[in-house]
Design goal:
0% of the residues lie in helices and 24% in strands. The protein has one domain. The protein has no helices and 14 strands. The chain is mainly beta. The chain has a six-stranded mixed β-sheet with strand order 7-6-10-11-13-12, with no helix packed on it.
C-alpha cells in the first residue's frame, strides 16, 4: 500500500483508474491509500472551498466533521444490469465531499421543480447528519478544474462502483448525446464513465458497475433506495439489458 496526496507521483501504474495517469486524482485535503485494486479514501467531510453560513433560514443543519472511509474500485467491473442509487452518499468528489442522488429526503427532485432545495454558491448543503454534499455539478470544483472550450471536462470524482465522474463536456467540448440512464457512456480513451448534466438526474441515475458495499456499512448510509416508485430511475432499455 502507499499513502498519497495530490501531486505526489505514484509508483503504481494506472493509479488514476480508469485512465493511465500516475498521480493522485484527489485533492490535498484527502488522504488516499492506493492498493492494486482500490483507492481507500479518508475524508473529514469539510469542504475545502467557501460555503454558505449554516444553519441559516433555508437550512437548519450545520456542517459537521465526519469520519468517512470510502472504497473506490480501481478496476471497475460492469454489472449485468444497472442498480438503483442509495440515499446518502453515492460517490465521492476529488475533494472528499460526497455526491448524493437527485432526490431530497421526501423522494422529490432536489434540484429543479416544486421541491427544489436551497444550495450555496458552490452547489452544496448539509443534511440532518451534518454531512455537506452535492446533488448536482459542484461549480467550485472547477477551480482549478475548469471546463475549457473544445475539451473534455476534467475528472471531478468517482462513483462507488469505481467508474469516474466528469464534468458536462465530452470529447471536443460537446455535451455527450449518448448518455444512458445512469448518465454514463463509453469512449476509447476513458472506457465507461459518468458525466454530470444540467437536467435530471444531474450527477448519476444509477450504478452501471458492481458497487463496493463497504461504502454503505455506516450509520445513515443505506444499500437500497425506498421502493416507492419515485426512486426507480433506471428503466430497462435495450442498452441496459
Amino acid at each position: 500500500m502507499m499513502l498519497v496526496a495530490l501531486g505526489l507521483v505514484l509508483s503504481l501504474p494506472g493509479a488514476n483508474a480508469p485512465g493511465s495517469e500516475a498521480t493522485s486524482p484527489f485533492e490535498s485535503n484527502v488522504k488516499v491509500t492506493v492498493t492494486s485494486n482500490l483507492f481507500i479514501v479518508k475524508s473529514d467531510g469539510i469542504p475545502n472551498h467557501t460555503t454558505a453560513d449554516f444553519p441559516n433560514k433555508n437550512n437548519p443543519n450545520s456542517i459537521r466533521k465526519q469520519d468517512y472511509t470510502f472504497y473506490i474500485p480501481r478496476k471497475p467491473v460492469r454489472a449485468d444490469k444497472p442498480t438503483r442509487l442509495p440515499m446518502g452518499p453515492i460517490g465521492v468528489a476529488v475533494n472528499g465531499i460526497p455526491f448524493y442522488n437527485p432526490f431530497n429526503a421526501e423522494g422529490q427532485d432536489a434540484v429543479t421543480g416544486l421541491y427544489t432545495e436551497i444550495f450555496d454558491t458552490c452547489c452544496g448543503h448539509p443534511d440532518q447528519m451534518g454531512r455537506y454534499h452535492y446533488h448536482k455539478y459542484p461549480v467550485c470544483l472547477k477551480t482549478p478544474f475548469r471546463d475549457k472550450p473544445g475539451e473534455h471536462s476534467p475528472l471531478i470524482g468517482y462513483a462507488f462502483d469505481g467508474y469516474a465522474i466528469y464534468g458536462p463536456q465530452g470529447d471536443g467540448g460537446k455535451v455527450p448525446g449518448d448518455l444512458d440512464n445512469c448518465n454514463g457512456h463509453e469512449d476509447s480513451k476513458r472506457g465507461y464513465h459518468y458525466h454530470v448534466s444540467t437536467s435530471f438526474p444531474y450527477i448519476m441515475g444509477g450504478y452501471r458497475g458492481v458497487v463496493d458495499n463497504r461504502n454503505f456499512d455506516r450509520p445513515g448510509m443505506h444499500s437500497t433506495q425506498p421502493n416507492n416508485g419515485r426512486f426507480n430511475i433506471i428503466r430497462e432499455t435495450p442498452e441496459h439489458k
